Amino acid sequence: MGANSSTIKELSENEYLKKLSGTDSISENEPFWNQLLSFTLSTPTNSQLFIWQAHNALFIICCLIKVFTSQVSEEELLLHFTYRATDPGNYESDTEDLFEELLFCLIQLIVEIPLLDLTYSILLEAVTALIVLLSYQLFHKDILHESPIHKHLMNGRCLPYTSRLVKTLLYNFIRQEKSPPPGSHIFPQQQDGGGLLYGLASGVASGIWTVLTLGGVGSKPTPQQEQSSPLANQSLLLLLVLSNLTDSPDCPNPFRQSVTFFKNTQDSSVSPTPNPHSFQINFNSLYTSLCEQQKSDQATLLLYTLLHQNSNVRTYVLARSDMENLVLPILEILYHVEERNSHHVYMALIILLILTEDDGFNRSIHEVILKNITWYTERVLTEISLGSLLILVVIRTIQFNMTRTRVRLSLPNFGRNFVF
């Protein structure tokens, strides 16, 4: 305590604490109070035992919830989290709902705990736990409109953390932090790159992805990417699930509102009607990650969601001078159409449709000259404009669709936009 750094071991000998607990009175104007409060005390949050036990507790909870979600209804699951305390000799009891407490603690853990090598695994478990809790949709043919779990997330104690949770999940996706090396883990790691629960949650998330894409089968997986950055991948999946929850009867989905209204950190304009769940994030970092991660279905879905729902992101993307960094990965998806499912291809086409609705974009892509497109193998393209390549790939995709897959696409819309 005092002006110098302190540790818990030093507290018993600290002169300011001795004076505070002594018998002499201290005036409110004495410098003592400033000296007493001028300390730097690091709380023992890096306790390996604490993190280890918390991680294992989350692991057990996730495994149990995974079984419950597939075997019992949501109402029955909530009963398992209902605690009734009865005092001896007292016939009245107080009932406590521990489920909302669990959701609140998981969200608080994700947004409050810094991402370090030591905390990577417990943050991954917390994100995975929320995905597992939201997996009830997989066992229902109809859309869940009045889910008790959704109600807890969209109201009550969890509601004020909406924007912070969305922002944290986005930053996890942006950072693409690799899983820490084995030497930095506080417990032994599985050799297969993720262990039981990560595989379990990946299956749950893949199933949720199937629901979001109306039953489509995913593209060929990229296990190396998912295993190298599991927290980024799980955070993206959780973000997509949260933003696609149905609106409750009394209020719209706050997570969708947060995704719709967040702004650039460099945007100093004041919104006339600020949304309570809005926040600011670095658009340059977000744009870079979106460009680099388009090989996965979920990253393409995130890009589509942001372009379609968030006007701030759409305006920023259309104003970029390096548009080829975003368009080329989308065109590569379409070029390898035989390796992608119809929903991934359709989303890529819709993204191009959104972009080509802007006249400035249509003009600028013809001014960008590309050289040596290595993934285009049908012929050697030593030099071609981005606009010409876009037309070439889209026509090839439409031809492939008409002759082989015959999946209905909105061809008139594409035709109108692609005639520059």
TrEMBL record:
Top-rank lineage group of the source organism: Eukaryota
Coiled coil: none
GO biological process, one term: Golgi organization
GO cellular component: Golgi apparatus
Keyword Lipoprotein among record annotations: yes
Keyword entries, A-Z: Lipoprotein, Myristate
PANTHER family: DYMECLIN
Similarity section: Belongs to the dymeclin family.
UniProt-recorded name of the protein: Dymeclin
